[in-house]
Amino acid sequence: MAAKTARSKSTSTKENGVRVEEGLSLFKSDKFDADAYVQSKCSINEKDIKQLCSYLLDLKKASAEEMRRSVYANYPAFIRTSKEISDLEGELSSIRNLLSTQATLIHGLANGVNIDHDGSPANGVLSFEDNDLSDLEKWAAEYPDQLDALLAERRVDEALAAFDEGELLISQANENHTLSSSLLSSLQFAIAERKQKLADQLAKAACQPSTRGGELRSAITALKRLGDGPRAHTVLLDAHFQRYQYNMQSLRPSSTSYGGAYTAALSQLVFSAISQASSDSLGIFGKEPAYSSELVTWATKQTEAFSLLVKRHALASSAAAGGLRAAAECAQIALGHCSLLEARGLSLCPVLLKHFKPIVEQALEANLKRIEENTAAMAAADDWVLTNPPAGSRHASTAFQNKLTSSAHRFNLMVQDFFEDVGPLLSMQLGSKALEGLFRVFNSYVDVLVRALPGSMEEEEANFEGFGNKIVQMAETEAQQLALLANASLLADELLPRAAMKLAPLDQTSHRTDDLRRHSDRQNRNPEQREWKRRLLSTVDKLKDAFCRQHALDLIFTEEGDSHLSADMYINMDGNGDDVDWFPSLIFQELYAKLNRMASLAADMFEGRERFATSLLMRLTETVILWLSGDQSFWDDIEEGPRPLGPLGLRQLYLDMKFVICFASQGRYLSRNLHRGTNEIITKALAAFSATGLDPYSDLPEDDWFNEICLDGMERLSGKAKGNNGEVHSPTASVSAQSVSSARSHGSY
User: Fold this and answer.
1) Which of 175, 243, 584, 707 gives a 20 to 30 Å CA spacing to 116?
2) Which of 417, 391, 415, 385 is nearest to 403 (CA)?
3) Which spans does this entry mark as compositional bias, Low complexity (predicted)?
4) What is the fold of 138-226?
């Protein structure tokens, strides 16, 4: 089995090698043209290059973020290992010193005792030479007392100098054999003992809250000179911790105090202590990895403790109450102080974000929920009449642009306040979440506007479970229903995107003049916000479709469910035998009248946004025509009914379609869909007539005849001309007699 696996791997390797060799053969050719090769592989245009650059930049950011997360995920293990190695090195050094001291003592004892050849001491006692003491021996005898005096008087610098002097003389005496081994061992023990005593004194003094910065640095430097660098660095960090803990005793968070003040004072203490500790560590110990690692670990621990305090005493209560501004300000204050440490190589903001981000997200969601609920409550009592912004509001200066109903004004004001609060969210990477949440709230508000349309409550009830209060004031008149669309379109197209510009990155907004910003707003808007605006407008289409569907159905059907637009309208014309007074059918007269009324109302409601009003009228006309084009029962009666479509019915249907094209063209809402829909209807009618064996074109007048009747009909219906005592007749009046009263009763204005 193993041999077979080895053979398969060998074969695979050889095959890969052959492929690589074949791929490289192109570059080995003498005829290889580098420029032509690059052109063949890079045949992309400037737009694709820009998209590729944008993709690569996003990939670079994602890669950097992933590397940062990976480093922080494994950093504690690295720090812990480094600390253990440093401690182990210190223990090995201590063991080495102890072994050296013990060997010296044994050697001194062996050389200092005079043993007789027979193995017994002379005269029963140890025998020493009775020479006079030398100056060096006198110094050695006085040296321990001198060290004790210096330590008692806290004369640290002189004590350190005395230690250095003693160690130098001991080294020289050991080399020159001017002192006995026992005396050398005694001196070394005395120095080690007093060094430990001085180190304990320095560590105790350094951790006193009253010790000033200069005194602390001097103590730590002295402790380092004593040869115990790891302990000196640990004492330095502990001293800064003790100092800011002592200063924190004056901070007493209160439920009635402003959380931002507490956060500012606390972050000033903590991050100033971390900054000073970093400065002292670098100044005394340099950039040695072991000390730098210990500093990072200590700073991370202090930041964790700080974030928990801020969460408990400032953020939690604000977030629970939906106080986004208070929560965001607290987080921003802390992040601002923390970011100043990055210049010292300490990137601690991710530690804060880990604790602050979830709780600020909670405040964000609570704020959005409040906007949603307040707007729903306002919609329950909204009279759907457009008014100027409330007196004294910040938007009153642009009153002609900001005419909204009361619930939309409330929604807009709350959104403006919301965006005043979310600036700090950018530093916490919550800008996208804020936009997504606001889109969700706007979508819910549009659902409320849809439910305000008469007739939509029953069929849409199951789709609107998320907005809380289901009570909504009905928009009965056409003016009120158009006001619903004015609300949604103005919010989605102008007010919300303009407010969302406050979330644009600083480098996109800080170096432009106001004129330039207005001129190039569309080009310079953040791509994410462009996509967000597109989604807002697509949500408005939901309301627009519901509006057009309702009015189309009101035109086509009676309250009892009968159709105003049936095949009998046209089929029965050839059986009446009456003279025909050619005029558009009543349903298309009503469609024209409705469009005229709406155009007149929209001229005031959509001032400055005529394009939206035009698209609305276009959509309504399309809805009626596309319904007729796709009504299978209508075409079944035309094509396969008991009575065929006659010449008069064909002419009337052709006239109705020409009438629609004529008034849509005059009103500038003739679309491709509308043109295609009318053409399909005419084509189907001609085909049905041809199926009877007759030539449809022999019974249809010229287009000028239809155009004249259409123009005359538009004039009469618009009140510019009247005939027969002002009455309007239609050859299909016998079939659609109910259409005028039904449509007018629903479209009061």
Assistant:
1) 175
2) 385
3) 730-749
4) Methane Monooxygenase Hydroxylase; Chain G, domain 1 (1.20.58)
